[in-house]
Amino acid sequence: MKDKQWFLLIFDLEKKKNKERVQIFRKLAVSNILKLQHSVYAVGVSYENESRIKEIAQALKEFGADVLLFEGTLRDIGVGKTSSQQDLERMAGESLDGKYSQLIEELRGFKDRIKKAETGREKRRVMERILNLSKKFVALSSLDPREVMSTKRSLLESELFDAKELMKSIAEEK
Q1: pLDDT tens, 113-146?
Q2: DSSP string of the chain?
Q3: Of 7, 111, 117, 162, which is least packed with CB atoms within 10 Å of its CB?
């Protein structure tokens, strides 16, 4: 089996640059780059991910941070001596499970809101948000390096299925 290719971003940004840190953490969050440890992030190699992570690395450098950006397999990066592909997959998986949990909570809230919505306009707004959550899930699941689906991912898929069935029944009411 061929080792997966990764981008690994490690940085050190002074604590007193709080405004800049917030900007970077927001960029990392919306880019679906996985936090492995404090100031250590990883994402699978792809053209899209390459442009995202290089943009973030450049922003960090402009803020005066020390930045290391690696590309390759764990062996190429030199991590293989102390860790393994399974360790990175486990850490990435744990990070994704946290994101899946957040999406589950958001989705449950939207399902409650759609049931309570009184106008068609309110229902359509909530449906749009559910569809956006579905798109986020697709993007996140494409990053998941694990061969076996996690419980959180499975639960989120089930919740999304239920939400789509609910939306279908509401659409049929018209």
Answers
A1: 988 988 889 988 999 999 999 988 988 887 777 7
A2: -PPPPEEEEEEE--TT-HHHHHHHHHHHHHTTPEEEETTEEEEE--HHHHHHHHHHHHHHHHTT-EEEEEEE-HHHHT-TTT--HHHHHHHHHHHHHHHHHHHHHHHHHHHHHHHH--SHHHHHHHHHHHHHHHHHHHHHHHH---SSPPHHHHHHHHHHHHHHHHHHHHHHH-
A3: 162
